[in-house]
Amino acid sequence: MKIAVLNYTGSVGKTVIASHLLAPRLSNSQIFAIESTNETAGDLGLDIDQLRGEQFGQLFRELLILDNAIIDVGASNIEDFLDHMLKYEDSHAEIDLFVLPVVSTGKAQRETIKTVSALVGLGVEPKRIQVIFNRVEGDVEDNFSSILMYAQKSGEFIANPAVAIFENEVFELLAEQRTTIADVLADKTDYRQKLREADRKNKPLINKLTNMHSLQALAKPVNRQLDKVFIALIGSNPATVNPGQNSDD
């Protein structure tokens, strides 16, 4: 399965979704960061190919021979990305799903609708355009009424309230530590024991150990929630091997 994560507006969590939701659950997926200025999954230690929007032709050729891919399109490159996609007739067919992260601000919701319109203009069918409600605090229906109403009225994309990632400090800690939930789950270090043994005067070490222990405590429930989001997003598509990494570990 090949999934593009994009939105005309920035700071909606595209790289978080690519790195923490999609990458651990799409086996052997190549990550393409279509970015020139902002953080990418590579900053979290994942292996990526970094391109610019104007290099869509190179990306297109790569997608033709890949089974699984994640395309993280930065807001600074989306115009070029879509413009160059238009030059390759029906090239959007090589991407199985276009995922649009959206946060609750009015601007983000308006820009998400703009992104939907651009994809529809390229010929992308509604079933291949889906929003992810991100950084949710409270009720999805209350905070994202504009998106939900537009989806129902237009029929141009899918807006499923179950596809929601809730606000959690784990994502900020992961960014600070330059790591991913998958790596935290795989790390069997007993940071509580290391804290007991550490020199309390070594503040940098103490901070690192407390952060890592906090990450371990937060990662398991968040990972289980992301499993549910992924299933709601993808369903039982046979291309999605490994739909939940170490949920019970």
Automatic annotation (TrEMBL):
Domain of life: Bacteria
Record InterPro entries: P-loop_NTPase, StbB-like
SUPFAM superfamilies: P-loop containing nucleoside triphosphate hydrolases
NCBIfam families per record: StbB
Protein name (record): Plasmid stability protein StbB
Organism: Advenella mandrilli
